[in-house]
Write a structure and sequence with these properties.
By secondary structure, the protein is α/β, with parallel strands linked by helices. It has 8 helices and 13 strands.
Length: about 280
């Protein structure tokens, strides 16, 4: 996930079996890693969620008995098929957190190899212990910073997912033209980049900037306003369209078919406006 200032060096964990009540449910685990404050909460409805730092967002979710979340992570399962006509062989998740997307890919697309990149190694342990991340046998977790890892990788990814933007912690070096040029160069032919633009409800500033910057690199950039505080942006050098996603829907596993039709109904052109961010000018603060 996005790098943040170093906090306390000591790790503080609640003993196994100890819980703390909050307005959101029960805190079953919390710790202070070298990167951020981490807590895992069991909500009253049975969902388990990962919160970081101020808790302004949910970074991973686990719903017992389900691989769908009824939230932004479901979009990653079907949106690639706005371009792809075959199941992806390799994907990279930049901002793996506790592995919600990786776990779902292991269920619906068990032959797909997943590289999950997460800068905070503590989150890998959280994912394995609390979020069933280990159920995907084709997942390789890399405790690394996303852009250097992507630069060193051999590439050939059918999908590169970027899930590292969450205000107020937005790593500028993952929001620039040069970064998206690197992502383009690490895609397999016909591959897609999908970006989760997390934003305050009603504020499109970050989405406009990301869409405009991606459009400097890719001929087509589309948007799916999947949640009030999340928009998924998809870009590719290959043709991408809502029509193609709708056509692929019947070929997808089980419950993903209807999900793909819903995604296709929302998919449209990127928003106008926004500046182009570069490595020497990316004022994301």
């Amino acid at each position: 996930f996005a790098a943040v200032p170093v906090m306390l060096a000591a790790v503080i964990a609640i003993p196994v079996g100890t819980v703390k009540a909050t307005d959101e449910g029960e805190v079953i685990f919390e710790t202070e890693s070298e990167h951020q404050y981490i807590r895992v909460i069991d909500q009253p409805d049975g969902d388990r969620v990962l919160e970081l730092n101020e808790g302004q967002a949910i970074h991973s979710m686990y719903r017992p008995g389900s691989f769908l979340t009824r939230d932004v992570w479901d979009g990653y399962l079907v949106l690639p098929f706005a371009a792809l006509t075959e199941l992806p062989e390799r994907i990279a998740i930049l901002g793996n957190a506790a592995g919600t997307t990786a776990r779902a890919y292991g269920h619906y697309f068990p032959e797909t190899h997943v590289d999950g990149v997460e800068i905070d190694p503590e989150l890998e342990e959280v994912g394995l212990r609390y979020f069933d991340m280990g159920s995907n046998e084709n997942l390789t977790v890399h405790d690394d910073d996303a852009r250097p890892w992507l630069r060193r990788s051999e590439g050939g990814f059918d999908v590169i997912m970027v899930d590292a933007y969450r205000q107020p912690y937005i790593p500028f070096y993952l929001a620039t033209r040069e970064f998206f040029e690197l992502a383009r160069d690490r895609l397999a032919p016909g591959g897609v980049v999908i970006v989760n633009a997390g934003h305050p409800e009603g504020n499109d500033d970050l989405e406009q900037v990301l869409g405009r910057t991606m459009a400097e690199v890719f001929p087509t950039v589309l948007r799916d306003p999947i949640e009030p505080t999340n928009t998924l942006l998809i870009a590719s050098e290959a043709p991408i369209s809502a029509r193609r996603l709708g056509a692929e829907a019947p070929e997808l596993p089980g419950e993903l078919a209807n999900l793909a039709r819903i995604e296709a109904s929302r998919l449209g052109p990127r928003l106008d406006g926004g500046a182009v961010y570069t490595d020497d000018r990316a004022p994301v603060e």
